[in-house]
Amino acid sequence: MKHPGCPRTTSAGSFPRASNSQCLQEVRHAYQPEPGIHRRRDDGDDHRHQPRQRKRRDVRHEPGHDHRQHPPTSVTCTSPAGAGEVNVTVTTPGGTSNPLPFYYIGAPFKASLSPASGPTAGGNTVTINGTGLSTATAVTFGANSATPTVISDSQLTVTVPTGAAPGSVSVSVTTAGGTNNGLTYTYVDTPTLTTVSPNSGSTSGGTAVTLTGTSLATTQSVTIGGVAAPFSVISDTTVSVVTPPGTAGAADVTITTSGGSATLVGGFTYVAQPRHLTPPHAEPGTSTGLRPDSPSKRPGKAHALPGRCPHTSRAADRPPRPRFW
Predict the structure, then answer these.
(1) Which of 36, 118, 161, 287 is most buried per CB count within 10 Å?
(2) Which DSSP state fits 23?
(3) What is d(CA 176, CA 108) in angstroms, rounded to the nearest whole number?
(4) Which residues lie closer than 8 Å to 223 by C-beta, 6 or more apart?
(5) 305: nearest Cα among 287, 280, 281
(6) 62-96 pLDDT tens trace
(7) ∠ CA 96-102-103 to the nearest 5 degrees?
(8) Which residues of 229-255 are buried (b: 16+ CB within 10 A; e: fewer)?
(9) Separation CA 170–CA 184 (nearest Å)
(10) Pairing between β-strand 200-202 and β-strand 260-271 as defined by DSSP bridges
């Protein structure tokens, strides 16, 4: 027979005649492993080294492990109608939980909106006053929504979004208590200024002029040469203005509305008025040489013309006429 791992063959039922050491050497030669993947035991036998594989721990089969599923730790429900503060409890087959507080918040109430109009492009800030505004999350202008800044339970501010077109839209506020509307905001186009009539006047002011343009119905101020002027809105295209005092020369006319500002450069010209001339004093020796404010013209004093004697009222340089009796 052939010994496992040994190249020698023997007859059936017998072992090789070679010594054990010779057989081991031949077995080593037949099973020569590759370098670096074997280790040698103390008994002299060579065995291929197999890397150890870490077994994953399966806690499901360990003693004491709970094979049941854990119960849920939260529950979702829809609150019924209510008001004020109430207690919330959860009841299961195991009993009833301890109560937790829940607060019902009423719908917001809006009292005022300021300013109530602005440019169609948006970007201006609006203040809303009312009650129940502390939980506000959104303010809607028509179909456009904006996120508010809560100042207190009675006041919030919001940046107006861009409007779709000029005109009025409804304003609604959304809070934890619901949504409330009832206020109106008006989008206004930017104004234009085309003519000023008349376009000139006195530097002392007081000239009544008419401004013509578009989108002037919400006029807030008018300035001429940088000085505010009193005005009156006649229509969406006409505003009446009284010019303030100014300096001679051309001045810019600026009109400001809820939708913005418009300026007509050099739209009005201030004209200086001529001065009142004082007639010159008369030359000495003439009757017109007297001045009304002369100190000699006082009550109880003799008034003499220049070049005449104050006692005889005749010329001082003329000799007296001879008298004949």
Answers:
(1) 118
(2) H
(3) 9
(4) 229, 252, 253, 254
(5) 287
(6) 555 555 555 678 888 888 877 777 888 888 888 88
(7) 160
(8) bebeeeeeeebebbbbebeeeebebbb
(9) 5
(10) parallel
